[in-house]
Every structure is written in C-alpha cells, then in structure tokens.
Write a structure and sequence with these properties.
The complex is a heterodimer of chains A (984) and B (199).
Chain A: H1 2-37, E1 46-53, E2 58-64, E3 74-84, E4 90-100, E5 105-111, E6 121-129, E7 147-149, E8 160-163, E9 167-170, E10 175-181, E11 189-192, E12 195-197, E13 200-203, E14 206-211, E15 222-227, E16 233-240, E17 247-253, E18 258-264, E19 276-281, E20 286-289, E21 295-299, E22 307-315, E23 320-328, E24 339-344, E25 351-356, E26 366-374, E27 377-386, E28 389-394, E29 402-411, E30 422-427, E31 439-446, E32 449-456, H2 461-464, E33 470-477, E34 484-490, E35 495-499, E36 505-512, E37 521-525, E38 536-540, E39 546-549, E40 559-565, E41 575-580, E42 586-589, E43 599-607, E44 613-622, E45 635-637, E46 644-647, E47 662-669, E48 680-683, E49 689-695, E50 702-705, E51 713-722, E52 725-726, E53 733-736, H3 742-765, H4 767-774, H5 785-793, E54 860-861, H6 868-872, H7 896-912, E55 950-951, H8 973-977
Parallel strand pairs in A: 9-16, 38-44, 54-55
Antiparallel strand pairs in A: 1-2, 2-5, 3-4, 3-6, 6-7, 8-10, 10-14, 11-12, 11-15, 13-14, 15-16, 17-18, 18-21, 19-20, 19-22, 22-23, 24-25, 25-28, 26-27, 26-29, 29-30, 31-32, 32-35, 33-34, 33-36, 36-37, 39-42, 40-41, 40-43, 43-44, 45-46, 46-50, 47-49, 47-51, 48-49, 51-52, 51-53
Chain B: H1 2-30, H2 43-49, H3 77-82, H4 85-113, H5 119-144, H6 165-198
Helix pairs in contact in B: 1-5, 1-6, 4-5, 4-6
The chains are: A mainly beta (984), B mainly alpha (199).
Subcellular location (chain B): Secreted
Organism (chain B): Bos indicus x Bos taurus (Hybrid cattle)
Family (chain B): Belongs to the IL-6 superfamily.
C-alpha cells in the first residue's frame, strides 16, 4: 500500500518539481509583467481645456495623461465627442491615436463648419491604451466631464451678429454663415450681394446659411449682410482663387555666379495674402524665400557645385504647390548680350565690324554669331569664337548699300541659348556705275530737220552704285567729226531734246555719280526720215502681256527695240521701250500700266551695227478686248415710206475698246412684224423682240433699211461689235415712215406755197397798182367786170353812170337852222348827235330784214366794188323818218324784178321798222370815207353812219327806169336812185 | 475804412480760393464716370463700386450707419444757418480737418481690402489733401476775420467700425457720405460769405 502510495507519490513529486520549475521559469517574466501591468493604468485624461480660434473656426483641445508609474511611451487612442448647443446633441465623434509620453500635454484641433460664435459647444473624451505590449482586453476609460466652449460670451451688446468675420475661403469650397439675434428679432433678412438668402434655424436666435461651391467675385470679397431693426450687419467672405502650380520653371545663369530661376505663377489668387514662393536646393540643403512671385535668384557657391536639384514651393493659406528641376550649371549658361558693336573701315565692298562680350569665367570663350542683313534678309552669317573682343571682316558687299550687322553669343563649352541680339546699320561707299544707261530716242522731223528726244531709264540700284548726279549726252556729227556737242543733264531727269541737222549723228549717254561715269550707251541718228510705211499688224494680248515676233531684215542686226506708249489714251505719250539682243526675234511685252480695253501700238526697230534704228514692224493689240463702250453717232437720211439710210462716217474705231469687227443694226417695229430679209430676230435684255442685221465689214459705215411699212414707227440702233461683244443697246432712235403720197404732196404743196408767197410779195409790191386796177377809191364803172358780165348776159346797151352826172347827189331835204352845214361834211356824228336837226328825209330803199346792226339800215350795194365802208362795218347812216313823203321809186335795176324786189323790200321794211327808228341810209358814190386820200381835206365827203352799207350801185338804162330829162344826161345816181327828187 | 476794405478783399480772396477747392472736391466726389469706374473724377463711385453690393448699389442708403468720430451731420439746416459766421467757420474747419484724418484711415482700409489696386487709394489720398487744404483755407479766413485761431488739430484716435472687412467697407461708405454732406454745406456757407464780403 505504502509502496504503491510511494510510487504514486513519485510522479506527483515530479509533477510538483516540474511545476515548480515552470513557475520558477515564469517568475522573471511574471516579475516583468508585474512591473508593467501590475498597477491599474490611469486612462482618464486630465486637465482637458477647450479654447476657440475664431479666425480658423477651430476648437483647440489640450489635456494631459497622467502616468506616474511608467516612463515608456504608449500608443493611446483618445475618443473625442463634440456636442452643439447641448451636451446630448453630439455632432462629432473622433478617435485620435497618438503616442503618449509621460506627463505629455496633448493637443487636438477640430474645425467647425459652423462659426463657433453661433453655438455653444461641449467636448469630452475618453482614452484607451492601444499598444501591442498590452494584452487585451483594451477598455475605454471613463468619459471626462463635458467641457463647454462658448464664444458668445465675448460678444457685445449689439442686437445682431453675423459670423464668421473675414473668413478666407478657397474658390469651390463650401462655407456656412450664421447670425445671432441677441434680442430675438424674427424679421431679419439676409442677403448675399443683394440677393435675399433663406437659411435654416439652428437655435432660437441662431440661423445658418450654407453656401456651396463659392466663386471668386472680387478682391474685396463677397458681401453677406443681414438687416433687422438696427444697422445692417454683415461679413465679407474673402474668396481666394485656387493656387496654381508654377509653370515653365527653369533656371539659367549669365555669368556662372548667379542663377536665376523663373516660372509662371499662374493666375493671381486675388487675396491680400499672396502665396509665398520658396526655392529649395536638395544637394546643398539650402533654401531661399523668393522676393518675386515669378523669379528667384540663387547665388552660386564657390564649391564648384555643378548639379542643382531645385524645388520651388508655392504656398498660401489653403494649399502648397511644388515643382522640381535638376539643373546643370554649365548647361544653363545664357550669356549677356554683347555690346559696342561698330562697323569700321567701310569701303564699297568690304567692312570690318567689332564688338565686345562679357566674359564668363577666366577660361571660358563665347561663340558669337555675326549676321549680315541686306533688305531685311540674312545674306551672310559667320560664327566667331570670342573671349573679350570680337572682330570680323565682311566682304563681297555691294557699293552704296545699307546693311545691318547683328551679333549674338552663346556659351562655347555647351550651347544652350543665344544671348539677346545687338545690331548696327552701316552703308558701303559708292562706286562708279557699272552699267550703261538704257537709252532710246524719239525722232521727229521739223522742216526737214530731225529733233531727237533722248530717253533713258534710271539705273537700277545694283548698277548705279551710288546716287546718280547727272547724265552726260555727247552728240557727235558723223559727217563732221570735229563737231562735238556735250550736254549735261542733272538727275533725276530722264530725257533731253536735241535738234540736229540733216547729217548723221552718234549720241553717247553716260550716267555719273560721285565716283565716276558709267559705260556709255550709244544711239545713231540718220539725218533723213526712215521708212514709215510699214503695214500695221494686229495681235492679241495675254495675261502675261503682248507676245510678238518679227522677221529680221538684215543679218547684221545688233539688236532690236520694241517701243510703245504705256497710256496711249492720255497725252503726252509715256514712251516705253525694250531692248532685245540680236538673237531675239520674239518677246513678250509686259507692263503694269497695261489695261484691258486699251489699244496699244508697238513699233519694232532693228538696230544696225552703226547703232541706227530702222522701223521693222508695227503692231497693235489689246491686252484684253472689251465690248465697245459707246455707239457711233448715226445720221438718218433718205427717209421714204419704205426705207431710210443710216450712216456713221466719222466713227473713230481706234478709240474703241477692241478691234471693231463690224456693226449690228437693230430695228424694232411697233407692230412687231416679221424681220426683213437679212435681219434675224433677237431678244434684247428687256425681253423685247428685235431684228438684227450684221454688218461684217468694219469699214462699211452706211446701211439702208428697206422694206418698211409706210406710216409705221420704227426704232433703230447701230452698235459696233468686237470679239468681246457689242456696244450698249440703250440708245434706240425712233423714226416713222411717211405715207406713200406724202412725197407727192410735198412736191405739190411746196411749190404752191412758194408760188402763193411770191404772189403775195408781188401783190404787196404792186398793191397801189393793184388797187388802182382792182378797187380804186373811185371805181371806174367802165372798167368794172360787172359791166362786161351784164353786157354779156343781159343788155348790150347798158351804160355806165358817169360820176360827173352826180350833181344832184344831195338828195336830202334838211330843215336845218341857218348856218348848219351839210350833215355829212367833215363830221362823223352819231345819230343821237343829229337828233335835234329833224331833217326831212328821203325815202329810198327799205333796209334788209335780216340786218343785225344796231338799227335798221338801208344799204346800197354797189356790185362794182364792196370795199371801203362795208369792210369797216359801217355805211353812211342817215336817219329817215317814215313820215317823209314818199317818192315814187324808179326802177333801180335793169331787171324789173329787181326794182320790184327793192320796192317790196322797202315797203316791208317800213312796215316793220318801228316809228322813229327807221332810217334810210344812203351812201354817196362820191368819195368814200375810206378812200385812199384821207389825208386830203374833206370836200364835203359824206360820212357814213354805222351799219350803213353801200352794197351796189348799178346803172340802169333810162328806158328801164324813168324818162330822161335831157338827152345828155347820163344815168346818174340821183336819177337812178330817187326819181322822187324831181317831185319836189 | 481802407483797412476794412483790405480785410474784405483778403477774405474774398481766401473764400474764393476755398470755393475753388470745394468745387474741385465736389467734382472729385460726385461726378460719376460710368465708362471708367476708376476715373479720378469719381471717388465715391469707384470706391463703392469696388466694395461690391450693397455698397455699390446706387439706391443703397443706411442712414443709421455712423461714425462718432466724424463731424456731426445731425444739426438741422435752420440751426446751422442761424449760427454766427465765426462758429460756422470753426465747425467747418474742424470738419474738413477731421475728414482729412478719416481719409487716411479709409486708405488703410482700402489697402487691406483691395490689395494690389492703388487707384482707390490714390483717390482717397487726393481727397485727403484737398480736405486738408480746405481746412487750411478756412483757418486763414478765420484769422483774417480776427476770429480765434482754430485749436491745434489733434491726431485722430481709434475710429470704430474697423474690426472686420465688412465694417471697414461700412466705414468707408460713411466717410464718403458725410464728406459729401459737409462739402455741400461748406459750398453754401462760403457762397454766403463771398456774397457778404463782396458788398
């Protein structure tokens, strides 16, 4: 039992030993552990202090962790809670991990999106050891007590506050603005740049306004303000543009002593707080704060540092930007521009230029590039190695030419960049003209003597080699070699006139500048006119000019000259010429003065070995033919009922804008009839139909338009045409053909009119004779044609009453006072004036019934003449009272019915004439008041009264009337008219 | 009698000089140049345009905004008109001296607010010189009239409304506004003086 017990005790003892050993082995560890964790860790933070940074809107927390037992560092986690307005309103929870030393004061900041002044904040925290050396479980400590952060305590007594003040905001970020109404106003309006903004209420008197993605408006910031009852209150949000990364960052040195780094800073952020720029060099560890926002200088040290690693850091309130470059000092040498560049020893063809450079180091050379520019183009370029002074001889220059020399240099050891250029102008010296002037002549013969106008072209700058001062003209008479005439024509004249005699001459022209003369140009003049009778050819111009060719006349020609006028339409002619070599038989004449539609005349001369010019050919052409610009003035003639002739004889074809190939005759008829033979129907631009006749011959300048209709209206137009078209169709003339007989009428009427006119002239010239013959003042009855008529028709025995028989003409019986004269003598009284005389009147003949005069009248009608009184509209007017005793009327005319008629008419008249108005007018056959001898004193002429009319007096044979008183008595008017006179 | 005339002539000359300066001030303050807000002819417009709305709004008016350091604008015109010439001269002289001081503060404010744009600062500097010159002219008039010389002008103390950018803008607005008021009042007053001593 004991043994078994003992055996049983042995394993037990071993186990106990092992256990003891294990425990002994663990004892040190345990001892160590007991050193660290044997005491409970003081996890609760102490001395928690909360402060407010209003500018940054941050809460700053500060606390300590008291751990008196351990000296090692521990990693710990601090859990921080932030509440707003009240402790229970937790708005932020964050674990802050850090390594904590013993008695270390810890800091932590929290930026609030809401301005801290607008709300009370509460902060508390707890801790936990988060160190791998501490086995789990890791437990949070207890929360600290709430710490209060109240920024409103510092506010004054204003009724309204707006926060945050002067907040710096980066463009594109979000910002919250709030206001606090201290007296709990509820009628507060808030505006962002005058725009009403609505916010959200955070507390009883706190409102917040959140702005997202704010933008830059102006440097002075964005205004936010609120208006209540008092003054408006507001804040300015200072919005900054985003800081850009510097661009094009590079460094270089001009002298291997100072490095200059430059960059493009980008847009201005717009804030007063400018970003700072710092240059940091990593190899040397040096840095410098740059004074400029786009450039920074770096002093090269003397330690032969060749490589530089620069980092440029741009930094502002919100962010940092950096850019780096690796820079080899030797590879970034940008020398300064050379200086003192001067030309020296400038001749006509050579010049030496010198310049200086700023040395780089003691052993370094510069590679300089010398450029020579003429007329703005680089014509020479040379590279020269220079240490201090540079010099180079420029050759192959042109005389009297302005050049520009310019120099730039680069670092010879390693080319990187040319320096700035410097330049200097210089002009080479003059030389004698290198070429003879191009001379031509125009020869005119005045009275058989040639007058030569010499023309020359100014030498080109290349050949003038300086300023041409004058031209020498040497005229040599070849027939008299001793005769030499020298003219000096000052420049810039390009012509001179020389009058010669009929000898042959050689004229030499040289151009002179300040250095000397040019080679001579020679022309020879013959004393006699050459052959001008050369037929003119035609040619067409092209875009390049006038191509022309000719046939040489002699094999010894030394050249050819083509001459023309640039503006032939303007006088005087601007003579142009072109010299051609002896091998040329064609050329193209071009000129900037050539215009389309202008006729140019060219003359081609052949130059002999003696420099004599012979006219070879004449040519005329247009650069481009145009349609005629105007139409000829057309005369129309020979107008008949069926045709007319058109002619335009003096039409100047040379002034036209193209070669006239012919003419079109347009004919328009009102009736629109068919076109006549030879005409073709065509449409004008106004769509009117027209007939057109084409005249192919430009020399034909007359045209007969035939087959016309009589009495028809036509319009015609004659227009020339060239290869480019016809002339203007806007000047139609009208013509109307006469009828077929009009010409006959003209042939008859015109002579008749002429004849009548001649008769009238004759009558006028022979009026007195005619009057005497045809209507004398006292007609001669014997000469009356009536007489012959009566004789012929009635009675061959009829006779004419003789004037001498008219003694008893005074047939009226007038009871007039004594002394009164005969009523008709020398006076012309109206009936009213004679009213009181109461004469006794003789009844003669009744007046005509249809008499329309002022009163009833009785007129005698003398068929032998009816001029005088009747023409004047009045007759002898004699009042006749009806109460007068009636006399028996004798026969008045040979035809009995005439007397009867008269008597009857008279009786009727009496019956019709009212009492007191009836008159008896009697016109004496004595001198008419209108007779031609009015000037003679009146010898009792009976003056007719108005409306009396002496119609006719007619001699009646006694046998037919009344018995004659005596045999000798001829038929007298008295006897004829009033036989009653004898009754008294 | 001759001495009185001499004094009157001197006063007239000085008043005319002051009036010329005032007209320059008026031209500088009030003549707007819409095409060029930075024209030197439009101090107020340029200054306010750069501040943004509401200050640049032509209809903006905040009569309650004031600076206690500025000369008072509360005195009704009737009372002002009833004051003796000497008193009015003294008040006007003090006012323009005060404005010359305030313009300096406004310049500093603008420098802070408007970095990099010296045009408004230049205009304020010009206005300050003119206000200072007018104050000197007024002092000379007072001396010529035998009035007590104005008290030695003391430097301006702390001026309110400068604790934030917004209030700086308000301060500039009030200075310009009140300066315009005093300029108008001075023109009228000096016109009266001119008429009075021209007789």
């Amino acid at each position: 039992m004991r043994s078994s017990t003992k055996k049983r005790r042995d394993p037990m003892a071993l186990f106990a030993v092992l256990q003891t050993t294990f425990l002994l082995a663990l004892l040190p560890l345990r001892t160590y552990q007991s050193e660290v964790l044997s005491e409970p860790l003081p996890l609760t933070p102490e001395s928690l202090n909360v402060s407010i940074n209003s500018t940054k809107q941050c809460l700053h927390l500060q606390w300590t962790v008291h751990n008196p037992d351990y000296h090692q560092e521990f990693k710990m986690v601090f859990q921080i809670q932030i509440s707003r307005f009240k402790a229970s309103n937790v708005i932020w929870l964050e674990n802050y991990s850090t390594t904590v030393k013993r008695n270390q004061v810890l800091h932590w900041s929290w930026e609030s999106e809401l301005p801290l002044e607008c709300a009370i904040h509460f902060v508390r925290m707890r801790t936990m050891v988060d160190d791998a050396r501490i086995p789990a479980p890791r437990l949070w400590s207890n929360w600290s007590s709430w710490e209060k952060a109240d920024a409103q305590n510092s506010l004054g007594d204003h009724p309204l506050y707006v926060f945050p003040k002067d907040k710096l905001v980066e463009e594109g970020s979000n910002v919250t603005v709030c206001y606090i109404s201290m007296n709990h106003q509820d009628n507060i309006s808030c505006y962002l740049e005058d725009v009403l903004i609505y916010g959200r209420q955070l507390d009883q008197n706190v409102w917040a306004f959140e702005f997202k993605n704010v933008s830059f408006i102006r440097k002075t910031g964005t205004n936010f303000y609120c208006k209540g009852q008092g003054d408006p209150e507001g804040v300015v949000l200072l919005v900054s543009k985003v800081l850009e990364e510097p661009k094009n960052f590079s460094c270089e040195t001009q002298d291997l002593k100072t490095l200059t780094c430059t960059w493009d800073p980008g847009n201005d952020t717009g804030l007063i707080q400018l970003p700072s720029y710092t240059l940091f060099e990593s190899f040397s560890g040096k840095k410098t704060l740059c004074k400029h926002r786009n450039r920074c200088d770096w002093q090269v040290t003397q330690d032969s540092q060749e490589m530089y690693n620069f980092t440029l850091v741009a930094e502002n309130y919100f962010r940092k930007r950096s850019v780096s470059i690796l820079f080899n000092l030797i590879h970034g040498v940008h020398p300064m521009a050379p200086y003192s560049l001067f030309p020296k020893s400038v001749s006509a063809t050579n010049a030496t230029v010198t310049w200086k450079v700023y040395s780089i180091g003691s052993s370094s050379a510069l590679l300089c590039q010398l450029q020579l520019l003429g007329e703005g183009k680089v014509i020479q370029q040379h590279n020269i190695s220079v240490r201090v002074n540079g010099e180079y001889l420029l050759s192959e220059l042109k005389p009297d030419t302005e050049y520009m020399a310019r120099v730039r240099c680069a670092y010879a050891d390693h080319f990187w960049k040319w320096s700035e250029l410097i330049s200097q102008n210089f002009t080479t010296a003059e030389a004698a003209p290198s070429e003879a002037p191009d001379v031509w002549r125009d020869v005119t013969f005045v009275s058989g003597h040639p007058t030569v106008t010499l023309f020359w072209k100014p030498l080109s700058k290349v050949h003038a080699n300086g300023k041409i001062l004058f031209y020498n003209v040497v005229v040599e008479n070849l027939d008299e070699p001793s005769s030499l005439k020298v003219l000096s024509v000052p420049a810039p004249a390009n012509s001179t006139k020389v009058t010669l005699n009929q000898s042959s001459y050689q004229i030499c022209v040289t151009a002179h500048n300040s250095v000397g003369p040019s080679p001579a140009s020679t022309v020879a003049i013959s004393g006699h006119p050459g052959n001008e009778n050369v037929e003119e050819g035609r040619m067409n111009g092209t875009e390049d000019g006038f191509p022309m060719s000719w046939k040489p006349q002699s094999r010894n020609a030394t050249g050819y000259v083509v001459e023309w006028c640039d503006s032939p339409q303007h006088l005087p002619c601007v003579l142009r010429w072109k010299n051609l070599g002896p091998t040329n038989t064609d050329t193209v004449i071009s000129s900037g003065a050539f215009r389309p539609g202008v006729r140019y005349n060219f003359r081609i001369y052949e130059i002999s070995t003696k420099r004599m010019a012979h006219l070879l050919e004449k040519k005329a052409g247009y650069l481009k033919e145009l349609a005629p610009s105007y139409n000829p003035k057309v005369n129309m003639s020979n107008l008949t009922s069926h045709s007319f002739t058109l002619s335009w004889k003096d039409y100047p074809t040379e002034s036209q804008t193209g070669f006239i190939q012919g003419y079109y005759v347009y004919l328009k008829s009102k009736t629109g009839e068919k076109c006549h033979r030879g005409f073709e129907k065509t449409f004008l631009t106004d769509n009117s139909v027209c007939c057109k006749y084409t005249i192919d011959n430009p020399d034909q300048k007359t045209f007969v338009v035939k087959d016309l209709q009589p009495e028809s209206a036509y319009e015609f137009l004659v227009t020339p045409y060239t290869s480019a078209g016809e002339g203007p169709l806007d000047d139609f003339r009208k013509v109307t053909t006469p009828d077929e007989y009009s010409h006959i009428l003209i042939h008859i009427i015109l002579p008749m009119v002429f004849f009548v006119f001649v008769i009238m002239i004759i009558c006028y010239l022979k009026s007195q004779w005619l009057k005497d013959k045809c209507y004398p003042d006292i007609p001669d009855p014997y000469k009356s044609s009536v007489l012959s008529l009566i004789k012929f028709k009635e009675n061959p025995h009829i006779t004419i009453m003789n004037v001498n028989d008219c003694v008893p003409d005074a047939i009226e019986v007038v009871n007039k006072p004594e002394g009164s004269k005969m009523q008709f003598v020398g006076t012309r009284k109206s009936p009213t004036e004679t009213k009181g005389t109461k004469p006794a009147y003789l009844d003669l003949l009744p007046t005509e019934k249809n008499y329309s005069g002022p009163g009833p009248c009785i007129c005698f009608e003398n068929f032998t003449y009816n001029q005088a009184a009747s023409d004047l509209g009045y007759c002898g007017h004699f009042p006749v009272t009806p109460q007068a005793p009636h006399c028996q009327l004798g026969p008045l005319t040979s035809p009995e019915h005439l007397l009867k008629t008269l008597e009857q008419s008279y009786m009727n008249s009496l019956g019709e004439i009212p009492a007191g108005e009836a008159n008896l007018n009697y016109v004496s056959q004595l001198a008419s008041p209108m007779s031609g001898d009015r000037e003679s004193p009146p010898t009792n002429p009976p003056e007719p009264a108005l409306c009396s009319e002496y119609k006719m007096q007619m001699a009646i044979p006694l046998g037919l009337a009344s018995p004659a008183r005596s045999e000798n008595s001829s038929l007298s008017s008295t006897a004829l008219l009033d036989p009653r006179e004898h009754c008294h | 009698m001759s001495l009185v005339n001499d004094i009157n002539t001197l006063v007239i000359c000085q008043v005319l000089s002051a009036l010329c300066l005032l007209h320059l001030i008026i031209f500088t303050i009030t003549a707007p140049s819409f095409g060029s807000p930075h024209s030197h002819l439009s101090l107020s417009l340029a200054q306010l345009q750069d501040q943004g709305r509401p200050f640049s709004n032509p209809r903006f008016s905040s009569p309650t905004l004031s600076l206690e350091t500025l000369p008072s604008t509360d005195m009704p015109f009737e009372i002002w008109h009833g004051l003796e010439d000497g008193v009015r001269l003294s008040l006007t002289q003090e006012a323009f001296w005060s404005f010359s001081q305030h313009f300096r503060i406004a310049m500093v404010d603008q420098h802070i607010l408007h970095h990099g744009d010296s045009i408004v600062e230049d205009q304020l500097w010009e206005a300050r010189l003119k206000a200072k010159g007018l104050a000197g002219n007024l002092a000379a008039i007072m001396t010529s009239l035998g009035l007590p010389s104005p008290a030695a002008n003391t430097p301006l103390g702390p001026v309110p409304l400068g604790d934030s950018a917004y209030r700086k803008k308000c301060r500039g607005y009030v200075i310009i506004r009140d300066y315009s008021f005093w300029t108008d009042r001075a023109v009228t007053f000096l016109g009266e003086l001119k008429a009075k001593y021209s007789q």
